Amino acid sequence: MRIAQRELDALGVAPVTAPSARSLRHLRRDVVVAEAAVATVAQQLATANPTQATTNSLLGKRELDSLGVADVPEASVRSERRLRRQRRRAETAAQDLARRAAQQQTLTCVACMEQYPARDSVRFGTCENPSGHCRGCLQNWLASRIGEAGRTDDIRCPCNMPRCEGYATHETVHQHATAQDFEVFDTLQTQEVLREMPGYRACPSAACRSGQIHDNNDGNIFKCGACGHRHCTNCNVPFHDGESCEQRKSRKKMENMSKTEQEKASQAKVDSISATCPGCGARINKNGGCDHMTCRLCRTEFCYLCSAPYSGSQGIHKVGNTAHKPHCKYHC
Length: 332
Hints:
There is one protein chain. This protein is mostly helical. It folds into 3 domains: 5-99, no CATH class; 105-196, Herpes Virus-1 (2-Layer Sandwich), CATH 3.30.40.10; 277-323, no CATH class. It is built from 10 helices and 11 strands. It has helices spanning 5-10, 21-48, 52-58, 61-67, 74-104, 135-148, 170-176, 179-195, 245-273, 316-319; strands spanning 106-108, 115-117, 200-202, 211-213, 221-223, 230-232, 237-238, 274-276, 283-285, 292-294, 301-303. The strands form 5 sheets. A 3-stranded antiparallel beta sheet has the order 5-6-7, with no helix packed on it. It has a two-stranded antiparallel ribbon with strand order 1-2. The chain starts with a helix and ends in a 13-residue tail after the last helix.
């Protein structure tokens, strides 16, 4: 195979004088390598349209000059910038479409079963699941839970998902509860902070949600600054005017003792005018007649005086009056 001098000049190969067979083989190999390099660069220019910096990263400047490859024109740079702008516009349009699709999505409220926009979904604290309630039902749910909860952390996320640790935050309640319910929640949350302070006491009045600091210097009388309720901190009862804690304690003891005695007397009275049915345990009053009683509830027949049964193998019907208890007047 013969190679023209013009081809060698185009490839930057020095003239060969009287080449040997070995030199020709080496030259042929160099030409094949050079042609392959030019073909690779041409393919990448056609597909990727690189800038000059990209081309130089593929082949050094010296190699390009030796191969006779011209610099990448400025038009390629502008074309790449235009493609980048178009790609950014496409990404922005895709994001906008996704946002519109999310806004049009609807969910079913677990309370009223009506459809509501997914964008109105509320998430509680760290929970990633929507609560499942529309705005109106969520407001009603918050009102119910705030009224029942003793602490704000009792208001847990209503998503009912396993291992959910979400709870109603201050911001969530402020955005979705009524102003009145939020005020109650805010007061409850404030009290929780105050309870951690030494000497703080909540007002014991059921109608008051206030509280205040009460230390030992204030004595045993707690007076609520909000509602005026007075409470004895020693006895833990409404304050007892006119008597000391010891006097009140003695009085209550006497009242309790009198009450116990009254109960005993009442029970003795009931026992004296009634008998207990041995069948069902009901109390039966006798208003006349003989002492042979029949319970209206279980129909058991027994002696009113000693409760001995009339039926059975050891009953009065079977063995006679010896079935009566020894203390009974009918026993013989």
